[in-house]
Amino acid sequence: MQSIMIVEDEEALSRVLAAYVRKAGFDCRICRDGNEAVESFDAAQPSLVLLDVLLPGRNGWEVLRHIRSKSACPVIMLTAMSDVGDRIAGLNEGADDYIPKPFEPDEVVARIHAVLRRPPRSLVSSEQVVFGSFRIDLKSRTVFLNGASLSVTPRDLALLMFLAEHPNQIFNREQLIEKVWGIDYDGSDRAVDLAIKRLRKQLLHWPPEEGEIRTLRGTGISSMRTSPIRRRTLLSRWTFRYVLTLFIGLLTIGLASILWIRQETVHDRKQSLREFSQVASQYVTDGKGSIAVPKDFYEWIDRTQRLYQLPGQFSLTVFDRGDAPVFIKKAPLIAAGSSTPNIDSKPVLTDRIQTARTGGHYVLIAPVMSNHSPIGSIVIAYSYSDLANVNQNYVLIVSLLLCAGLLGWTIIYFLSWNLRKPIVQLSEALNKMEAGDYKVTVPDRVKEKEIHELLVSFQTMAARLGTLEELRTELLAGVTHELKTPVASIHGLIRAVRDQVVTDREAEEFLDISLEQTRRLQNMVTDLLDFNSFASGAISVRQDSIDLGKLLSEIAYQWELLYQEEGVEVAVDIPERACMAVGDASRIQQIAVNLLNNSRQAFQGRGSIVIALSEHSEKFCEISIRDDGPGIPEAEQAHIFERYYRGESKKLSIGGLGLGLTYSRMLAIAMKGELNLKISSPKGTAFQLLLPKQL
């Protein structure tokens, strides 16, 4: 006769499974924890194993690995962990089938027959999913395309595996979220679009004739998208804006510089022209009180003009005391239509230099002096275009500005590039986190203080979020297990009675167990409702004046009566002086009873509890509840007030939702007090409840 080993810590459920298995003609053995399962398997070598995951001692995964290390015995997982990722993990570990709770006992028996009909499996199994050149290796959880491995996040792998298990089927976002992300997922359905987008990118070179992930409008994953906003990269945006700002700034500086240089040049050349006219007036006198123009006056003008750095050509006319000019030098016409001002008429004699602007010319009249009296005059007409000609300076300015602009653009380009690198890596890390992969790394060798602090903070946040995500998944799995297990037990027990798998006294016993499981489920649902009502603010607390000494004595007395047969000793340390506090007596009793129950559960036998009352400060009274139990492991102390959290030892030995301490702390805060873990060690644990004094 083939034997079936049932590894299930829930007594009611294991008895239901055993009844159906025996009725199907199998021999049956029940194990309550993982350690017993390992020993029984090594000793009995059963034909098939029905295995739960959350077990006292070794968990289901450890038992499965032990079985696979020694045997190819078929294993069917029976667990409340129904997420696709959990099912994939179970199959990858070597399970032959995976049945989530609650389940039909008849279906379990049918699956047992189906698994046993399969040919014996090899210990070295290479389970794969193959679609042409696309392959998923289930054992290594690796995706291959054309022989090359692809980098896929665990969540994307779960989605890809689900789609591969259901080819040629259409699923909408809600269905995919429920099957892959889980029913407890409270994020945006945009995660489905992003995951599909990433998978399509990874499978870009997958031949369409072999397979593809297709989106159907209105039926499956929607392919409708809003008009995308074209966003420029940080490098191009900053570079463009900087170059534009730099261009405007340099252009302004260049124009101002040109105007300033032009003004200074005109001023300097006017001064040089005055000096030139004075030297020329001395050159045309003969020293006897009359004007005598030398024969080399033209050559002298050219030499002296170069000496004074006067560009271009200008007209020069020398007048004596008569009306007619004695020397005329005309400037060449520069452009058609231009003309030299009329200076043929004799100017009025004066002993001072006179200047004037006539049309486009600068006219300077310098007196020719002899014995401190004017004997004639020199009239110079200089084109303003020649006077302000600074072409070489303009070229120099433009060259300098272009070099400055190019240098500035190069600097900002490389600065932006270096600044962009950690930001791009940060963005990639955020995309991984959005996909559910919290094991990200960002560069930490960054010289800029602000960016370094940002990256360090992000790394810390990612690690914290990863821890919280793991904790959330574990806690929800625990809560799901606690709720599904009674449901599965009740269903199986009643089904066994109805199908007459058990009869007479055993049937009555099954019904009694069903009622007990119903009460257990009812208590958990009540706890959930109370917790949610209080968390949403639907329940208020009173603010009464309370004598804590009397209240604690009464609580200790009533609680000790309930558990005096278990060997639990309760001592009360109340000061003689009354300690009056403000709060809700019933809520204080809830907190105290929850802490007392936790201490009792930690003993696992005899133990003592001390309830002490003292003054903590001028504003608070302190209630301390200490026990001499084994204490809380240091790794768990930071999480004990988390919702749905239960320690490893308590999770596997005591049922519950893990809301007690969370609810108690919320009650304490609502009464303007605090609830803290004061100390915990292998010698005992102490909780501290602070309540405001009555002033």
UniProtKB/TrEMBL annotation:
Domain OmpR/PhoB-type residues, every copy: 126-225
Record-listed E.C. numbers: 2.7.13.3
Localisation: Cell membrane
Record carries keyword Ribosomal protein: no
Any one GO biological process: regulation of DNA-templated transcription
Catalytic activity: ATP + protein L-histidine = ADP + protein N-phospho-L-histidine
SUPFAM superfamilies per record: ATPase domain of HSP90 chaperone/DNA topoisomerase II/histidine kinase, CheY-like, HAMP domain-like, Homodimeric domain of signal transducing histidine kinase
Chief subcellular location: membrane
Superkingdom: Bacteria
Xref: Pfam families: HAMP, HATPase_c, HisKA, Response_reg, Trans_reg_C
CDD domains: HAMP, HATPase, HisKA, trans_reg_C
Domain Response regulatory: 3-116
Membrane-topology annotation of the record: Multi-pass membrane protein
GO cellular component: plasma membrane
InterPro entries in UniProt: CheY-like_superfamily, HAMP_dom, HATPase_C_sf, HATPase_dom, His_kinase_dom, HisK_dim/P_dom, HisK_dim/P_sf, OmpR/PhoB-type_DNA-bd
Portion annotated as DNA-binding: 126-225
TM region(s), chain numbering: 240-261, 362-382, 394-415
Residue span(s) of domain Histidine kinase: 478-695
Protein's name according to its UniProt entry: histidine kinase
Species of the source: Cohnella faecalis
Source organism phylogeny: Bacteria, Bacillati, Bacillota, Bacilli, Bacillales
